[in-house]
Amino acid sequence: MISFYPGPSQLYPQVKQYLNDAYDSGILSKNHRSPDFIEMSKNTILTMKEKLNIPKDYTVLFTSSATECWEILGESFIDLFSLHIYNGAFGEKWYEYRRKLMPNAAAMEYSIQKIPSLNKLKNIAEKPEAICVTHNETSNGTQLKNRVIKKIKSQFSDSLIFVDATSSMGGVTLDWLSADVWYASVQKCFGLPSGMAVMVCSPKAIAKAKSLNQNKHYNSLTFMVEKMQDWQTTYTPNILNIFLLGKILEEIPNITQIHRALKNRKQEWEDFLKNNGYNLLVINSQVRSDTVFTIKAKEEHVKIIRENCEKAGFLLGKGYGTWKNNTFRIANFPAIPAEAIEQLKEVLKENNKSAIK
To answer: Which of 34, 200, 285, 321 qualifies as a cystine partner to 30, CB 3.0-4.6 A?
Structure first.
C-alpha cells in the first residue's frame, strides 16, 4: 500500500534500512545523557539547519508531536495575549486549546479562498503579544505564503509570531526570519514514522520565554533550551526518530531543490485533475497548498473514489472538519515516489468524470 494520506504518510524507502542500522548501532539502548546520544543529537540538528537553511542562531528542539507544541507554547507564554489567525480545523484547534490553558486569546477566521486581511489586524482593540498562524492547513489544502507571514511580522514587530508548519516543513522553503517559532511533526514532509516533532525558535522567542520564566512544567521552553545547550532533551526522547531524521537529512538535497520539485509536481497534479474532471476545493491558486491537495465531490462519489484507489493499493486522505464528507485529500510529500504518482493517476482516470463534478 502506497500512502497519499497527508500524515502519517509514505515513508522514505531508505527508512527500512535505517531501522536496521539504528538497531545495529546500539544507539536505541543508550540513554539521552550519554555521549553517543549527544553526538547524534548535535549532528542531526546541524544537518537540519544546513539542509533547511535555518539561521545559525535559531535553536532546534525535539518534542513528541505538533500537538505538544501547542501546550509548550501555551504554558511557556501563558501570560501573553495571543491572536490566532486561521481558516481551518487545525488552526481552530490550536486556538481552542490555548483558551483551555488561559482565556486571554482572540481569533480571526478567514476564508479558504482568500488571503487574511491585514487591515482587520489594525482594528484589533488589544495589541496581540503573540500571533499564531498555520502555514499549511492540512484540513483543507491551503497555504499562508511566506510573504504574508512576513507582512504580519512587519506590522507587529514587537509581537512574537508562532507558526504551525506541520505539513510543509521539510517540503517547502520557509522564511525563518519572519517568525519566532516554527514547529512540525516528522510524519509528513520529513517522510518518517509518527511520534516526534521539531520546534525551531528564534533568539527573540527564547529571550521572552526566559523573561517570563514559566518553568513549572517538564517541557517548559526555558528548560528545553537549557538542556539543548548541551544537545540534550529534558526527557528520554524518541531516539529512533532522531536517528532516522539525521540519516534522511544527510541524504536529501537542500530544501530549495526539494521545493522546486514539489512545485513542479503540484503543477502537474493540477493539470491532471483539471483535465480529468476533478474539482479542487481551493479555487484561488494564490492560497493553494504545495503539499496537500483537497478535491471536492459528492459524498457518495468520494467514498467510491477512495475505495477504488485503496483496492488498487493507494491510500487517499479522508476529508477533514467542515469538508469531512465531501472531499478527499492527496499528499504531495517528498517521500512519495514519482512512479507511484503516475500509477495513482491512472487509477483516478478510470473514475467516471461526470460523477465527480
So the answer is: 34
* Rounded-to-integer distance, Cα 300 and Cα 355, Å: 10
Domain ranges of the chain: 2-8+254-356, 15-251
For the domain spanning 15-251, the CATH number is 3.40.640.10
Digit-coded pLDDT (tens) for 238-278? 999 999 999 999 999 999 999 999 999 999 999 999 999 99
The Cα 173–Cα 149 span in angstroms is: 13
Pairing mode of beta strands 292-296, 279-280: antiparallel
pLDDT digits 0-9 by tens, 158-183? 999 999 999 999 999 999 999 999 99
Grid cell 486522505 in the structure block, residue: 317
CATH superfamily of 2-8+254-356: Aspartate Aminotransferase, domain 1 (3.90.1150.10)
> Has this prediction a pTM greater than 0.90?
yes
Q: Identify which of 321, 322, 320 has the alpha carbon closest to the alpha carbon of residue 330.
A: 320
